[in-house]
Design a protein that fits this description.
The complex is a heterodimer of chains A (113) and B (114).
Chain A: E1 3-5, E2 10-14, E3 19-21, E4 24-26, E5 32-38, E6 44-50, E7 56-58, E8 64-68, E9 73-78, E10 87-94, E11 102-103, E12 107-112
Parallel strand pairs in A: 2-12
Antiparallel strand pairs in A: 1-4, 3-9, 5-6, 5-10, 7-8, 8-9, 10-11, 10-12
Chain B: E1 5-7, E2 10-13, E3 19-24, E4 31-37, E5 43-50, E6 53-57, E7 65-68, E8 75-79, E9 88-95, E10 104-105, E11 109-113
Parallel strand pairs in B: 2-11
Antiparallel strand pairs in B: 1-3, 3-8, 4-5, 4-9, 5-6, 7-8, 9-10, 9-11
The chains are: A mainly beta (113), B mainly beta (114).
C-alpha cells in the first residue's frame, strides 16, 4: 500500500536558519513526488516536483528537495528561512498521470524572528 | 497564468441538505479531481474524473457523493444529504496528461454543516 509520512507535525526555525522538512514514502512502484505549500486560508501551491532525471530538484522561493530511492525519502530544504516561509507544507506522491495523490499529514513551519 | 477556480469560497448548510460545489478547471486539462481536508487533518482524495466518467474513487466517495461535468468548463461535486462530518475544505484539482504529473489545485470551498 502506498503511504506518505511526514515526521514532525510542527517545525520551528529561526529566521536565517536552515529549514529541513522530512518526507518518507512507501511504494512498490516508482513514485512521482511533490511538495505543496498552503498559506492560511489559501489553496495548495506547488513548490517542486520529482518525476524523472536529476534527483536534486529546485523549486520556488529557494526550496529544494532530493529524491533518495535507497532511503525512500524526499526531504525539503531551504538554506535560510524567511518569515514569509511560515506555512503548512505537504508532501505528496502519485504513480501515474491521472492517478490520485497520496498526501502526508503536513508540517506546520513557524519562523521565529 | 491559468488557474483552477472554485465557488463558493464558503458554504454553510444544514444537516440533510444538498450542496453543490463548483469548480472551473484549467481549460486544456483533461483530468479532474476532488479532495477534502478536514480541519487539522491531511488532504484526502475523493474522486478523479476523465473522459466524462469516474476513473478512480476512494472509500470516502460513497453514494451520497456525485460528480458531473455539466458543460465544457465546469466540474461539480454534489453531496446529496450532508452530515456534520462532511464539514471540511474541499479542493478541486486538474491535470494535463501531456504536461506531467502535477495537479493544479483551486483555492478550496470551506463547507460547514450545522
Amino acid at each position: 500500500a502506498q503511504s506518505v509520512t511526514q515526521l514532525g507535525s510542527h517545525v520551528s526555525v529561526s529566521e536565517g536558519a536552515l529549514v529541513l522538512l522530512r518526507c518518507n514514502y512507501s511504494s512498490s512502484v516508482p513514485p512521482y513526488l511533490f511538495w505543496y505549500v498552503q498559506y492560511p486560508n489559501q489553496g495548495l501551491q506547488l513548490l517542486l516536483k520529482y518525476t524523472t532525471g536529476a534527483t536534486l530538484v529546485k523549486g520556488i522561493n529557494g526550496f529544494e528537495a532530493e529524491f533518495k530511492k535507497s532511503e525512500t525519502s524526499f526531504h525539503l530544504t531551504k538554506p535560510s528561512a524567511h518569515m514569509s516561509d511560515a506555512a503548512e507544507y505537504f508532501c505528496a506522491v502519485t504513480f501515474n498521470t491521472g492517478n490520485q495523490f497520496y498526501f502526508g499529514t503536513g508540517t506546520s513551519l513557524t519562523v521565529i524572528p | 497564468e491559468p488557474e483552477v477556480t472554485q465557488t463558493p469560497s464558503h458554504q454553510v448548510t444544514q444537516m440533510g441538505q444538498e450542496v453543490i460545489l463548483r469548480c472551473v478547471p484549467i481549460s486544456n486539462h483533461l483530468y479532474f479531481y476532488w479532495y477534502r481536508q478536514i480541519l487539522g487533518q491531511k488532504v484526502e482524495f475523493l474522486v478523479s474524473f476523465y473522459n466524462n466518467e469516474i476513473s478512480e474513487k476512494s472509500e470516502i466517495f460513497d453514494d451520497q457523493f456525485s460528480v458531473e461535468r455539466p458543460d465544457g468548463s465546469n466540474f461539480t461535486l454534489k453531496i446529496r444529504s450532508t452530515k456534520l462530518e462532511d464539514s471540511a475544505m474541499y479542493f478541486c484539482a486538474s491535470s494535463d496528461p501531456q504536461g506531467g504529473y502535477e495537479q493544479y489545485f483551486g483555492p478550496g470551498t470551506r463547507l460547514t454543516v450545522t
